[in-house]
Amino acid sequence: MSLHPAAGPRRSTALRAAALLAVGATALTGATATARTAADLHLPAAFHLRPASAGHIDAVGRVAPISTSDCVSQIGIHCYSPLQYRQAYNLNPLYQQGVTGKGRTIVIVDSFGSPTVQHDLEVFDKQWGIPDTQVEVVKWGDVPVFDPTNPDHTGWAGETTLDVEYAHAVAPDAHIVLVETGVAETEGVTGLPEMMDAEKSLMQHRDVDVISQSFGATENTFPGFDKGDFKSIESLRYAFRFAAAKDVTVLAASGDNGATDAMENGTDLYPYRVNSWPSADPLVTSVGGTELTLDDSGKRTAPDKVWHDDYGAAGGGVSGVFGRPWYQAGVANVTGDHRGTPDISMSAAVDGAAWTYESYDPTRVGWHLTGGTSEATPIFSGIVALADQLAGHRLGQLNPRMYAMAALPSQWSGITDVSESDNSWNGVTGYKAVKGYDLASGLGTIDANRFVRSLAGR
Question: Are 257 and 427 a contacting pair, CB within 8 Å?
């Protein structure tokens, strides 16, 4: 097996284009689907949008997943199932009380999507004994026919699979809406305007509780950044403002390149600290990455630490665009005058990778291991759906509530401090995890049973 950080979208695996039906697929057409393009917003042709996970996935599909102990002995890394995450994050007491995300909707946004997402989710569910759900697929604009030989298509299909499987694993009764946008990066189109238009339209036309975004673009690559002109980012924030008005929670992955991130070419990294959007947006909850050390049953054998292994590191740092939001006033000694990320962290390490089933590429059908903060983000989207169900209403922007909760003892808030490791990467010195808030893990990670109850006010 070869685990590697992919340059650009996740590189993953896949099977039969015959299962192209994600049943219930919806096409948004007419005026609703009229999306602004990069040119409309004066974004550069070289601009490269990518999934935040940057993929870290094993190259060969396995017939069946293996245990954590077997992964360690055979591959040299830890690997985890959704059942182990349920144990590690103390989710089972919530499920036993009927808190499963029922009645709540998670929207996942990915370019191109996956033609086998429904089939793959059903195989995934059967393996772990998780109830099936029907994924609603919304095609935004002109989504091209899936080409398993196109690395852009397969990269985003892998991201799609990870997002859907792990949002569902955490909130098994939540309704999942997968929004597929038809953005071909090879044609020099950024994709962000289409994604923001799709998100706003979904919120206008149906009930949405949480939006999960496993993609990002480095702030420095937006036009005008070097001159202190941030109009190109400001012009994209309309979906988040609309979400705030509708009490919809918006999440974004903090990235997989530690305190740095990709240049415009999508491959090279800046030789100094940078941050990415939408993770750095004050209207968004930024989800960072931790490394869990679990036994075969999902019990911890060591405290969680900031993700920093041979394959990547958790994104985090201070924004070059956004000032410090009011809810971070209590951590101003850490962030200074700027927005700090992440806000909260979940499992993302490649040495602690998640099992996914993928069949969109007929040459690589089977079980794969994937890491990255775009694993952490859909996991947390499921947590939000659970809290929304328990509260009986949408919780909207979580950051003010979470920063207030962090002032409480952990046994009340469910927020668990992460104080080991750092997010240095590729020669760029990152930030150390310390007691309290830091720019490597944010507020820390969670005990879901306590966190969900505290977040929901129950």
Answer: no
